[in-house]
Write a structure and sequence with these properties.
Length: 645
């Protein structure tokens, strides 16, 4: 009985084992099948996804900033360069806490609030994989301090990048301009893919006007990194496309000469090739060094320049608005011929003043005793105000406007620079809309000799001078001569029209002869012909009042604040019979065009004709450093506009 029971239990146990083995085997098979299925799902179906995630952990994509195009003068002198610069950058994927990183990094690299603000601006538009500049142009001391604590700053790298450099400092600051860190409003407008890897953009001058040509396009490189984010080796690279190189009409030698002649005084010099409109010299003095703007100028330095009484950031050649004084008399004279109001034989008697019929107010000539009997030739040669008072009254303000605007007055010239001012060329409608007042006949007397509401920029006067040198052929001034690089651009380098003139072509030649007499006859710039060899100058002096004079008073420098001394002008071209250069020179508070502005123009003429200025050419004595005038776009006409030339 016991033996049977034992046999029965063995059978039951074997059956139970088989059942359990079957269940366990099934579970193992199902688990293994699930594992195989999952493995297949991950390795086959989801392969691309996980391969990408793995590569993202192992491979970093970095943007490579393109080298900015170079800028050269007409003779190949490099005016805007690129040089290696150490830059601290941050990768947001690797930096655990950006705010904490910046807070700890500030004392190491000397980061100020402005640096951090610029970084945060760029952070808003940068791509996730892009290394964002924190500070540009690191010093050796900055790099040494960071090297000691590098392990505490994951995501911070010191990279070598090309940064803009201006080898001649302030000499070309107002023409070439400068690049600077991308501002918040600019970041909203730019294409982020174009500016990947860079934090700089053209801010002023040619750097801004030709930004799309100079910037280039970024490249990219794949870098293999270890588990700690340290870069191991490059895997693949797409080279950036360098920006275009620009060749300018500017002549380094002439620019340097003009700046030296104007040194110590506030003013502007613009020289143009009448044949092409190419700008040969473009000087605004005082200037400033543009290099600090590249890395981010400090608020203290910027405030110092901004608030300086001589206003070095102010581009006088492009934005300075001044009464042109007697420099506009050749244009007014041609207007009288155009409208048939005078000819070369028309004469007046000049007692030293003029008054409107029925009005006792006297408009005085700069020469107290008058010029006697005067025709148009003598009126230009000796700058007779009385002649042009009468002519202005006969032309009238609206016809005067329609004639003078053809020479570029009253509107932007169209030069390839930004923020150009247009000056004021008044009309009856302009005064009614702008000042809510009627036009009075006496106001035209002031306008007719380049005073009152009539204002110009030095660039406008240089352009107008080139047009009169061209005998009416219009030119648009421009700095760019040619472009080389991947981005096609064809600058226009030829005259682009004619002044509509009703007189005979010979009238332009007669005006040239009258302007030659200003220097070579009995005119107001006779001192400029001393030592002149091989050519003649055609020109016109000008003296523009800064402060009005009451009726019956005479202008007295000794009783006048130097800040209110007259501005000195000279405009002209040379050689007179075959012009190579047209020049406009302004010396703020320089008092007399002949003695202050004329010698500067003479030095440029000698350089253009002979290749250098004569050693005897010496810049005249500067006006006091404290004399700073802020010209206004709208200035009520003075009561007495007669001034000494």
């Amino acid at each position: 009985m016991d033996q049977k029971k034992h046999l029965k239990d063995s059978q039951l146990e074997a059956a139970l084992f088989r059942r359990r083995a079957t269940v366990a085997g099934t579970l193992v098979f199902l688990a293994f099948g699930l594992l195989v299925f999952r493995y297949a799902w991950l390795q086959v179906v989801q392969h691309d996804r996980y391969q990408t995630l793995s590569d993202n952990n192992r491979i970093k994509l970095q943007a490579i900033a393109p080298p900015r195009g170079y800028i050269y003068d007409r003779n190949g002198v490099l005016l805007a360069d690129n040089r290696p610069s150490f830059t601290a950058t941050l990768n947001r994927e690797e930096a655990k806490d950006i705010n904490d990183t910046l807070l700890r990094l500030a004392p190491v690299l000397g980061l100020g609030p402005e640096d951090i603000a610029r970084f945060r601006t760029r952070l808003k538009t940068a791509s996730p994989y892009e290394n964002i500049p924190v500070k540009i142009n690191l010093s050796e001391a900055d790099i040494a301090r960071f090297a000691e604590v590098r392990f505490n700053f994951p995501g911070i790298e010191i990279e070598v990048k090309l940064a803009r450099y201006y080898p001649f400092g302030e000499l070309f600051a107002h023409s070439i301009g400068y690049v600077g860190r991308i501002a918040e409003d600019e970041a909203k407008r730019i294409d982020p893919t174009v500016y990947s890897g860079t934090d700089l953009i053209g801010k002023t001058g040619l750097e801004k006007y030709y930004e799309t040509l100079l910037q280039g396009r970024p490249g990219y490189q794949y870098i293999e990194a270890n588990a700690h984010g340290q870069m191991l080796r490059p895997l693949d690279r797409t080279a950036p496309t360098r920006g275009d190189d620009l060749v300018l009409h500017l002549d380094y030698g002439m620019q340097k000469l003009a700046a030296e002649q104007l040194a110590g005084r506030r003013g502007a010099v613009v020289a143009i090739d009448p044949a092409t409109g190419g700008v040969l010299a473009f000087v605004s003095n005082p200037g400033f060094d543009p290099n600090p703007f590249v890395g981010g100028i400090s608020g203290k330095q910027y405030a110092e320049w901004r608030d300086h009484p001589d206003r070095p950031l102010y581009n006088r050649a492009l934005q300075g608005i001044y009464p042109p004084g007697s420099t506009i008399k050749p244009f007014s004279g041609m207007g009288g011929l155009h409208y048939g109001l005078v000819d070369w034989d028309f004469k007046i008697s000049d007692p030293g003043y003029y008054h409107l019929p029925g009005d006792s107010h006297l408009f005085r000539d700069w020469k107290k005793t008058g010029h006697g009997t005067v025709n148009l030739f003598k009126a230009i040669e000796q700058s007779c105000d009385t002649y042009f008072y009468q002519l202005a009254g006969r032309i009238g303000v609206d016809r005067f406007h329609d004639w003078m605007i053809q020479f570029g007055f009253g509107r932007p010239t169209g030069i390839d620079l930004v923020s150009e001012k247009s000056g004021t060329l008044p009309t009856i409608k302009w005064k009614r809309e702008r000042l809510k007042a009627p036009w009075y006949p006496g106001e035209m007397m002031s306008v007719g000799i380049g005073q009152g509401y009539f204002t110009v920029t030095p660039l406008q006067l240089a352009m107008a001078t080139a047009i009169i040198a061209n005998k009416g052929r219009h030119i648009t001034p421009h700095l760019l001569k040619s472009v080389s690089g991947p981005y096609p651009y064809a600058p226009v380098n030829q005259p682009d029209g004619m002044v509509s003139f009703n007189g005979a072509p010979v009238e332009w030649e007669r005006m040239h002869a009258a302007m030659k007499a200003v220097v070579h006859g009995h005119g107001t710039a006779g001192s400029l012909r001393r030592g002149l060899v091989g050519y003649e100058i055609a020109g016109k002096t000008g003296t523009a009042q800064v402060k009005g004079i009451k009726q019956g008073e005479r202008y007295s420098e000794s009783r006048t604040d130097p800040r209110h001394w007259d501005h000195a002008w000279f405009m002209g071209f040379a050689p007179a019979d075959a012009p190579k250069i047209a020049v406009a020179v302004l010396v703020e508070n320089g008092r007399h065009g002949n003695s202050a502005a004329g010698p500067i123009a003479r030095a440029l003429f000698d350089y253009a004709v002979h290749g250098k200025a004569p050693e005897s050419t010496v810049a005249p004595t500067p006006s006091p450093a404290s004399a700073t005038a802020t010209p206004q776009a709208v200035t009520p006409p003075p009561a007495d506009t007669g001034t000494d030339e």
